[in-house]
Amino acid sequence: MKPQKIGAYEITRVAEIDRMGVDPKFLFGNVTPEIIAANRGWLGPVFIEPDDKLVLSFHTFVIRTKHHVILVDTCNGNDKRRPSMMAWDGLKTPYLENLAAAGVRPEDVDYVMCTHLHTDHVGWNTRLVDGKWVPTFPRAKYLMAKTEFDYFNTVHQSNPPQPVNRGSFIDSVLPIVEHGRAVMVDTDHVLEGADGNGIWLVHAPGHTPGGVQIRVGARDRLAVLSGDIIHHPLQLAEPTLSNPADVDPAVAVKTKLKLMNECADSGLTLLTGHFPDPTAGQVTRHGERFRFRFQGD
């Protein structure tokens, strides 16, 4: 992805896993082979592999401002035990080296912003040092929506049969709290500037209770870092496709459609949590549904 200039802000994508093909049913419980076949033509091999696996990327967005270095979502992390998802189990990726190549050292980061607290968005919050999980970015304040944290913390405290969010709540969220680096914020929190011209949160419920979009705005341009509101562009053609992790599928569809309509009407830049490189683009209308156009296409 080419760096995105949004007024005084610059947004860069840094990949942990550039491309991963996943079983369609893993991503969308209600997908059918007919839906995939009907959309293969416009999605092409960037998004659908020959064996029908759907392509995802796992990446962080780096936002540079005049005063701060901000990371949005921190992927899966290394050394994390994820037996319920073996593709993420015990990873050894060059994520920190990729950040360094983008000019970001761990100590340079001022803020880490989590769109939501699922395992593939918080993993590099921590790293393993001498057998303990410690904050990867030692100076950073880690912003989490209080609604989101409270929901998963309540589930965690109920001693569920399976660890919360595949274990990431224990190894990638609670250590941040225990080290005093977590800052719980409202889902309309403004980090810089003002709502409409700065960096601010917008509540995006459905996939998780306290999930948020992150808006980066200038007077003449707006970008939305949408987390998992939209996982894959197949959802633009079939907005009712639901991820099995959606806590409220009906609300997730409403949130998705609201964002798709806003993108199509305003031309804002969409930066999702999982579209592979070149990632950035615009939503366009296609009859009563939508399509995605990479910038430069």
Can you tag this structure with a few keywords?
single chain; 297 residues; alpha/beta; Metallo-beta-lactamase, Chain A; 7-stranded mixed sheet; 5-stranded mixed sheet; 8 helices; 25% helix; globular
Account of the protein in words:
The protein has about 300 residues and is of the alpha/beta class. The protein has one domain: Ribonuclease Z/Hydroxyacylglutathione hydrolase-like (Metallo-beta-lactamase, Chain A), CATH 3.60.15. The chain has helices spanning about 25, 35-45, 95-100, 120, 145-155, 170-180, 235, 250-265; strands at about 5, 10-20, 55-65, 70, 110-115, 125-130, 130-135, 140-145, 180-185, 190-195, 195-205, 210-220, 220-225, 270, 280-285, 290-295. It has a seven-stranded mixed β-sheet with strand order 1-2-3-4-5-8-9. The chain has a five-stranded mixed β-sheet with strand order 10-11-12-13-14, with no helix packed on it. Strands 6-7 form a two-stranded antiparallel sheet. β4 (about 70), α3 and β5 form a beta-alpha-beta unit. It is globular. The two termini are about 15 Å apart. The model has no long low-confidence stretch (mean pLDDT about 95).
